[in-house]
Q: What sequence folds into this?
């Protein structure tokens, strides 16, 4: 199996390392090939932006590891077109430090990297981790939960143009193990609120206060302590 790992938090992000660990746990096979093609620096919240107006610098960071001076979607495109010797079996994007739920889906670079793969007919999964203040994030736990999900998703049927969006909840250490619940993206928009400061309007909406219009939407499920699994379509 050949797997491409991408993210939007940058090639040195702990979430990307956790995703690599998850792959090793989920697909313990001597023939497993993992390629990492990720932004050289953080490229969050830029959606599906691609670079076509100037050259994209790519730095080799080791065997099958490339740092790209571009966007998450650039990373997927370059990997498929130039950097991988053969087409990957899966493209995994994440693990993002922060949720990608509802309206986040169109904003997220993490989701964009997976969406780009889906455009090319490659099985893709975006994985994100909702974050709550005051609770330490354990990437080891995130990797273990992601590995369990990947074991399931590798066998799930996908229609043309479909891909998966996974959001892990942020739980206390002694919390019950979360369930995986299939969801649809929340329709209610993100909160809009701005403070007028001397330097301009500054966004002041709280992510944790975002609306929940549906009990089975991805926001309600993830905020409620379970793993949200959405099947997205181009």
A:
């Amino acid at each position: 199996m050949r797997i491409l790992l991408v993210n939007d938090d940058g090639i040195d992000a702990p979430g990307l390392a956790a995703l690599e660990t998850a792959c090793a746990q989920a697909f313990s096979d001597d023939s497993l090939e993992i390629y990492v093609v990720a932004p050289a620096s953080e490229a969050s919240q830029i959606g599906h932006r691609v670079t076509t107006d100037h050259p994209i610098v790519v730095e080799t960071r080791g065997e099958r590891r490339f740092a790209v001076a571009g966007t998450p979607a650039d990373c997927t495109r370059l990997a498929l077109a130039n950097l991988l010797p053969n087409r990957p079996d899966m493209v995994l994007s994440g693990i993002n430090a922060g949720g990608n739920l509802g309206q986040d889906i169109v904003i997220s670079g993490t989701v964009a990297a997976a969406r780009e793969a889906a455009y090319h007919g490659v099985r893709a999964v975006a994985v994100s981790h909702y974050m709550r203040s005051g609770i330490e994030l354990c990437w080891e736990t995130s990797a273990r939960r992601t590995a369990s999900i990947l074991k399931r998703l590798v066998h799930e049927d996908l229609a043309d143009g479909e891909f998966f969006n996974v959001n892990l909840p942020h739980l206390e250490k002694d919390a019950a193990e979360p369930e995986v619940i299939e969801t649809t993206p929340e329709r209610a928009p993100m909160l809009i609120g701005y403070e007028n400061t001397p330097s301009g309007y500054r966004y002041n909406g709280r992510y944790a206060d975002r609306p929940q219009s549906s009990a089975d939407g991805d926001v309600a499920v993830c905020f409620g302590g379970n793993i949200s699994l959405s099947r997205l379509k181009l």
